[in-house]
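Q: Convert this sequence to C-alpha coordinates.
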Amino acid sequence: MKSENYLRTLYTKEKGWFWFGLTVAIQIVLISVGYIVMNISL
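A:
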Protein backbone atom coordinates (compact mmCIF):
# COMPACT_ATOMS: atom_id res chain seq x y z
CA MET A 1 0.00 0.00 0.00
CA LYS A 2 2.76 2.39 0.98
CA SER A 3 4.91 1.61 -2.08
CA GLU A 4 1.88 2.05 -4.35
CA ASN A 5 1.25 5.51 -2.92
CA TYR A 6 4.95 6.35 -3.32
CA LEU A 7 4.90 5.29 -6.96
CA ARG A 8 1.80 7.39 -7.60
CA THR A 9 3.49 10.43 -6.01
CA LEU A 10 6.61 9.81 -8.09
CA TYR A 11 4.53 9.48 -11.27
CA THR A 12 2.64 12.71 -10.54
CA LYS A 13 5.92 14.50 -9.84
CA GLU A 14 7.40 13.25 -13.12
CA LYS A 15 4.27 14.38 -14.95
CA GLY A 16 4.52 17.78 -13.27
CA TRP A 17 8.15 18.17 -14.33
CA PHE A 18 7.24 17.14 -17.88
CA TRP A 19 4.54 19.80 -18.15
CA PHE A 20 6.81 22.37 -16.45
CA GLY A 21 9.58 21.63 -18.95
CA LEU A 22 7.15 21.76 -21.86
CA THR A 23 5.79 25.14 -20.73
CA VAL A 24 9.30 26.57 -20.33
CA ALA A 25 10.31 25.24 -23.76
CA ILE A 26 7.23 26.81 -25.40
CA GLN A 27 7.96 30.16 -23.70
CA ILE A 28 11.59 30.08 -24.88
CA VAL A 29 10.47 29.32 -28.45
CA LEU A 30 7.88 32.12 -28.40
CA ILE A 31 10.41 34.62 -26.99
CA SER A 32 12.99 33.56 -29.61
CA VAL A 33 10.47 33.90 -32.45
CA GLY A 34 9.31 37.30 -31.16
CA TYR A 35 12.91 38.48 -30.87
CA ILE A 36 13.75 37.34 -34.43
CA VAL A 37 10.58 38.93 -35.85
CA MET A 38 11.38 42.22 -34.08
CA ASN A 39 14.93 42.20 -35.49
CA ILE A 40 13.65 41.51 -39.02
CA SER A 41 11.07 44.30 -38.68
CA LEU A 42 13.75 46.79 -37.59
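The chain has one domain: 1-42.
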